[in-house]
Amino acid sequence: MTDHSDQHEQGFILDRFQIEAMAAIDAGSSVVVAAPTGAGKTVIAEHAVESVLASGGRLFYTTPIKALSNQKFRDLVSLHGSDAVGLLTGDIAVRRDARIVVMTTEVLRNMTYSNPEELHDLAWVVLDEIHYLSDPHRGPVWEEVIIHLPAHVHVVGLSATISNSTELTDWIRSVRGPTNVVVETERPIELEHRYAVASARHDPIELVALLRKGRFDRSNKRFDTSRGGGGRKKRAGERRDATNWSRH
Question: How far apart are CA 175 and CA 169, in angstroms?
Fold first, then answer.
């Protein structure tokens, strides 16, 4: 098992939960990581990728939607080169025999049934957004993947929103064997709630903060056309609609 130092090869300091999860990967144990958005879960997945590239075997990196798969594919290609990384999203197939293949979770589920021979040299599967297990419509896809993967395959489950990580890990352990759970509750990056707003005067779309110093930002009233606070004047008989606010 590798003795991790606090200093990452990219030059930044690893957090406790990252070191713990990476040590589990080096020990050949599946691991479920629950940590806030922006905490650095990606570093853990990348460690699994680097481990596979160094020691042999293959890794499948799954995401719940095609857009995320495409983005992760580009990220991994930039890190490891195009020859090492493939992409499968149902309508796109790029280097499906590569050492690292990014795919939607449904593609992997289908593969366990229709092309199990493609899994014989598979070492690791990263299940990004593993909290989809609780989704009433798509959850069974994640469940089937975890149950039907070959016994020799290890799993890295990542989530920012899972609340029952210990319970989930107990279930995965009962299905797949040794599985660690690593939980981080501290949020290193403060989240800001902003809205994309277009005014009635056809100004460019603005990203405005909902709160300022913990209170509603009253300057946003300039966008509220329903109260006469901005925009053009209402014509006789014209209906005045409130500005359409959409979360960005």
Answer: 10
Letter for the amino acid at 148?
H
Q: Given the structure tokens 């290890």, which residue do they identify?
A: 154
Mean pLDDT per segment of 10 residues, for the chain of length 248 residues? 52 86 96 90 95 94 95 96 94 93 97 92 96 92 96 95 90 96 80 69 70 67 58 49 44
Instruction: Looking at 81-232, list the stretches that DSSP marks H as alpha helix, in order from N- to C-terminal side.
Output: 105-114, 139-148, 165-176
Domain ranges (residues) in the chain:
16-183, 194-233
Decide which of 3.40.50.300, 1.10.530.10, 3.30.70.240, 3.40.50.720 is the CATH code for 16-183: 3.40.50.300
Q: Rounded distance, CA 83 to CA 141, Å?
A: 29
